[in-house]
Amino acid sequence: MTKPVEPVVTQPRNPTRSVKIGNITIGAGAPIAVQSMCATKTTDIDATVAQINDLQAAGAQVIRLAVDKTSEAKALTSIREQVSANLTVDLQENYRMAEKVAPLVEKIRYNPGHLYHHEKRKPWQDKVRYLADIAGSNDCAIRVGVNAGSVDPSLADQFDPEDSISPMIESAMSHCDLLDELGFKRYCVSLKDSDPAKVIQLNQRFAALRPKIPLHLGVTEAGMPPGGITKTRIAFEALIGQGIGDTIRVSLTLPNDRKGDEVTAGIDILTAIARGERLGSGALDGGLNIISCPSCSRVENEAFVDLAEQVREMTEYAQQYDITIAVMGCRVNGPGETDDADLGLWCAPRFVNLKKGGTPLGAYPYNEILPILKTQLDELISDKKLSG
Ligand code: SF4
């Protein structure tokens, strides 16, 4: 049984169109729906079924799974038979998985920045037409999920490299234009960044241009609680307070047996906003910022969540410095999502790749990475002291 989410009654909502996802509707004034994502291997059917049921019991109304391979699509068939939750599949580079998964789920999510990896000569418009056809014929909604770490490279090149917002807006707009032209209206959009201030700007700009498109809000790679919850709440307060947002996900780095905490956090944030309780942007007052992904089926080594926790503990002494450390779970998004961090780690099966200011420094075994990271962090702190 899913818990009903308390509607936000204190603020008017944008007049978005309604989008049906299985047995719920987002947009058009419907209560804001809470979503989550499985972090289990999709091929581990028992663990994935158990996690879907946990997330649903915590109140998740739509639950996402990653499917990149035929073996995962096959596992999804068995998962579908065992769960009643509304399911959405995250298509990454392998967009043609859509035809295998759409009959089994209520929504498919694609990232415009990932449509370029396969069949490079095929125009992205043809790929979107294919996805809209598949979704339409299988009673599925679509999410166009634009992410700061994986923007369509041809668009990123057209804008000032300092301006990460405009290419993302342009990407979302061009996909909305095409879907509308194709007559496919059952879609929502997300524009995610790990920086809550950018999430606010992105969604405000998009909502001003396209007030009717339902928005899925989220701060990607918000990190571990409680910091990750605070970052997310600040963004949601600002946006929902302006009537922007129809569904949310709180992305937290958590061990698998506590994944339901991100759903509880989402419900708590919505409840606080509905009651008019605000933290305000002052709750983030600079200092060390650790961003880490919420993990998913693509995590390359189960040690990732522990590593993120160890990085947080080891870096306690550097709290007062304005330094960003990113810890990512896989090679799909890890390389891109660590580009803007002062120090970035992304996990491969046996090694952790370390980057400084976007430049690769090397790959190190899991049991050796922490002292090496500390040396790099100390260098950064000493540079800051010298320049300060
Ligand atoms: S960085 Fe990789 S492991 Fe982490 S959530 Fe994203 S796709 Fe999943």
Radius of gyration: 20 Å
> What is the total domain count?
2
Biggest sheet features = 8 strands, parallel, barrel
Our count of helices gives 12
Cα(first) to Cα(last) distance is 55 Å
* Structure classification: alpha/beta
Strand order of the largest sheet: 3-4-5-6-7-8-9-10
The helix content, as a percent range, equals: 25-40%
Text of the CATH class of the largest domain: Alpha Beta
The small molecules bound here are: iron/sulfur cluster
By CATH, the superfamily of the largest domain comes out as: Dihydropteroate synthase-like
Q: What is this structure's SSE topology?
A:
Layout: E1 19-21, E2 24-26, E3 33-37, H1 45-58, E4 62-66, H2 70-82, E5 87-91, H3 98-101, E6 107-110, H4 124-137, E7 141-147, H5 153-156, H6 165-181, E8 187-192, H7 196-209, E9 215-217, H8 227-240, E10 247-249, H9 260-274, E11 289-292, H10 304-314, E12 324-328, H11 334-337, E13 343-347, E14 351-356, E15 359-365, H12 369-387
The chain binds iron/sulfur cluster (SF4).
